[in-house]
């Protein structure tokens, strides 16, 4: 569904993404992991067209995205830090998004709105609060609801469970599993590897803007002999360090 | 696109600054007309206020508005919305609010105390100045990431066009007073929208004695009608080019 070829981006002298290529298919749930500053968010933002890459190409459903915007009707995005107009109420934010996206949906898409998550989070009770009065967690809930609201084909979730209480984060994980079962492509970044365990089918590991590996979870479990994602990754990383030392 | 403008208006109405600007203009205009016995003297005083205040408020308000709607812009850009259209909608929303404020605040008293072609010229010039400086402010905000820098740049633009530029022109006039500078002066005036607005109104007022060197030149070169059209046309260019540049820069901006 998404093909990335030789994507490059630098901020000034800092190279954030080295030439990076990857292909994402429907029904995949990809975990994007890597240390802070490894280029995960820049990578995601390039797919969304929020960051304009220096070189390389991204195509979405076979169409190059450069300069386009229609393709975003098939994407639901949950940012790491959701920022909203301060004096808007939750109700108004939802109304505005429905209003703005209403006419931009392709005819094939019905006007189906997925409001399950709004109810599950109990947001209707807070509808008349302004965005600036919300706690970080509630803001995250609003972001999550907006990402799922338009029933998109691709879900891009940047640190979805950060700041959510355990109950909310379970609700969100259930929802992600449900959407995954419907055959959507899901891209998640997270540092909480235990959250990713049940969700992920593939792991994409970035370091210093370079793709270290992009493999199915089974492959990781096979070569490391670990079942838990966190341990498998840790074991690969420590092996790499060892081999680096040997090389030195 | 219209929907985005609607939300820009809602946001502007909510923070009441434009309302305060309208009231301020109303009070100033009404006071000036009340103080002067002669309506055209009132217009002259109003002209000086308009030439200073309109650019300043347009620049500052637009810059602050842009940085305050950064979240809104970020939110919308992750949606299926065209970047250029988003920026143009922002421009249309801000510019139309400020133009409305100006037309109500200055237009009302002018219609009441000094209806006529000179009053109309003042209003046209004010509207053109608003568009030009909103456009320049958009360009300044799009080019800078930091709010303080953006506002600083906006203020710099105001100082340059409102104060510094005339000083520079005078310096040139004095240092090259031995040469015929008529044509050069025409070009120099075209390069400053505030001067253009001033000349545009002066041509309408038919007070060539007050216009000094440049204005007399304009009258001589163009005659009133052509001169006015030329001035307005150049002002339009001053509004369109910065907006066009801003759209181009914004299309490549990382958020």
Order of helices and strands of chain A: EEEHEEEHHHEHEHEEHH
Strand content of chain B: under 5%
Number of helices of chain A: 8
Beginning-to-end CA distance, first to last residue of chain A: 40 Å
| CATH architectural type of chain A | 3-Layer(aba) Sandwich
Mean pLDDT rating of chain A? 86
Rg estimate of chain A, integer Å: 19 Å
CATH topology of chain A: Rossmann fold
Structural class by secondary-structure content of chain A: alpha/beta
Radius of gyration of chain B: 19 Å
Q: What count of helical segments of chain B does DSSP give? A: 10
- What best-fitting shape of chain A do the alpha-carbon axes yield? globular
Overall number of structural domains of chain B: 1
Keywords (chain B): Membrane, Transmembrane, Transmembrane helix
GO molecular function, one term (chain B): ABC-type transporter activity
Pfam family, one (chain B): ABC2_membrane_2
Organism (chain B): Rudanella paleaurantiibacter
Topology:
The complex is a heterodimer of chains A (248) and B (255).
Chain A: E1 2-11, E2 14-24, E3 29-33, H1 40-48, E4 55-60, E5 63-64, E6 75-78, H2 90-102, H3 116-120, H4 136-149, E7 154-158, H5 166-181, E8 185-189, H6 193-196, E9 202-207, E10 210-216, H7 217-224, H8 229-247
Parallel strand pairs in A: 3-8, 3-9, 6-7, 7-8
Antiparallel strand pairs in A: 1-2, 1-4, 4-5, 9-10
Helix pairs in contact in A: 7-8
Chain B: H1 2-15, H2 17-35, H3 39-68, H4 70-77, H5 83-113, H6 117-143, H7 147-175, H8 182-190, H9 193-205, H10 208-251
Helix pairs in contact in B: 1-5, 2-3, 2-5, 3-5, 3-6, 3-7, 3-9, 5-6, 5-10, 6-7, 6-9, 6-10, 8-10, 9-10
């Amino acid at each position: 569904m998404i093909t990335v070829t030789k994507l490059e981006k630098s901020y000034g002298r800092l190279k954030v993404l080295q030439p990076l290529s990857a292909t994402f298919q429907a029904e995949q749930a990809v975990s994007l992991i890597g240390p802070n500053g490894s280029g995960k968010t820049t990578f995601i933002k390039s797919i969304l067209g929020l960051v304009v890459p220096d070189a390389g190409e991204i195509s979405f459903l076979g169409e190059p995205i450069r300069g386009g915007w229609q393709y975003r009707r098939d994407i639901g995005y949950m940012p790491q830090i959701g920022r909203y107009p301060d004096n808007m109420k939750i109700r108004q934010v939802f109304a505005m998004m429905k209003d703005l996206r209403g006419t931009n949906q392709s005819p094939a898409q019905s006007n189906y709105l997925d409001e399950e998550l709004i109810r599950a989070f109990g947001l209707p009770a807070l509808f008349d609060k302004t965005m600036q009065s919300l706690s970080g967690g509630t803001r995250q809930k609003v972001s999550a609801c907006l990402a799922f609201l338009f029933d998109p084909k691709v879900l891009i979730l940047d640190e979805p469970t950060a700041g959510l209480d355990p109950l909310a984060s379970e609700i969100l994980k259930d929802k992600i599993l449900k959407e995954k079962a419907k055959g959507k492509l899901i891209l998640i970044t997270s540092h909480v590897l235990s959250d990713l365990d049940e969700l992920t089918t593939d792991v994409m590991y970035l370091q210093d803007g370079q793709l270290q590996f992009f493999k199915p979870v089974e492959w990781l479990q096979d070569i490391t002999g670990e079942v838990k994602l966190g341990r498998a990754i840790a074991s690969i990383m420590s092996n790499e360090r060892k081999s680096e030392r040997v090389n030195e | 696109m219209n929907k985005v403008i609607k939300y820009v208006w809602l946001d502007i109405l909510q923070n009441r600054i434009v309302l305060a600007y309208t009231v301020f203009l109303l009070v100033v205009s009404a006071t000036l007309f009340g103080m002067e016995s002669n309506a055209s003297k009132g217009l002259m005083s109003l002209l000086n206020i308009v030439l200073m205040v309109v650019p300043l408020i347009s620049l500052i308000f637009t810059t602050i508005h842009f940085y305050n709607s950064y979240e809104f812009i970020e939110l919308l850009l992750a949606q299926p919305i065209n970047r250029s259209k988003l920026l143009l909608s922002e421009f249309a929303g801000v510019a139309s609010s400020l133009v409305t404020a100006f037309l109500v605040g200055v237009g009302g008293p002018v219609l009441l105390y000094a209806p006529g072609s000179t009053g109309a010229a003042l209003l046209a010039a004010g509207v053109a100045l608003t568009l030009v400086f909103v456009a320049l402010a958009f360009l300044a905000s799009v080019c800078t990431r930091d709010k303080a820098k953006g506002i600083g740049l906006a203020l710099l633009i105001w100082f340059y066009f409102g104060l510094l530029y005339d000083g520079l022109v005078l310096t040139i006039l004095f240092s090259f007073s031995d040469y015929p500078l008529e044509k050069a002066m025409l070009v120099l005036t075209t390069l400053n929208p505030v001067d253009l607005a001033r000349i545009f109104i002066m041509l309408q007022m038919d007070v060539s004695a007050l216009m000094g060197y440049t204005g007399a030149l304009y009258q001589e070169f163009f005659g009133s009608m052509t001169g006015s059209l030329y001035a307005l046309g150049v002002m339009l260019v001053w509004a369109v080019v910065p907006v066009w540049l801003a759209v181009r820069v914004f299309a490549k901006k990382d958020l």
